[in-house]
Fold this protein.
Amino acid sequence: MSKSAARSMASMFQMMSQMIETEKDHLSELDGAIGDGDHGITMSIGFLAINAELSKLDLDRASLSDVMSTAASGFLNAVGASTGPLYATGFRRAAKALAGHDALDLSACTDVIEAISAGIRERGKGQRGDKTMLDVWLPAADAAAHARAENKPVDAYWHDVVTAADNGAAATRSMIATKGRAARVRERSLGHIDPGAASAALLIRVMAEALRPDRRDGA
């Protein structure tokens, strides 16, 4: 039986939460090297809150925009640290981008990735090379746009997006932080993967899994 697009997106957020729970300790360990050591906990709290709010929605009547807007509010209300406003802004931008979509095709997926990236960049006033989650989201957005423009099939599209995200996260190891809490340690951040980039790559990997047509169309 085909699931509604809203239910598919809600399932995506459930899968994201499960991934964060699995990797929570590792993310906090990464953060302990260059930050406050709580990134995994922060992300866990945020995504648990998202799913608590989504459980109140009538997903058979909700739009894709409704789901993303609810996610933004849930995350922001639960996470007061800088990560909260960054992802909330990204999710709100994605909610606006989804206003014209009623299906999770590659056009919608591209709009979501680009909107989240733009929202995070706008709120954080950052760029690639700052050693942040933008070193994942921005190349993933570029990869999505290019794959879409080249009319690549679903598997190739998501392969390009996930590869760009993974490479972006790995690249932060050779960067010196200039934004966020890690900027306080400057040169000592060199040699460490940014925890925000690591979690962003995990989220994009989950998107690729959750939004595949064969996954969406399952029970």
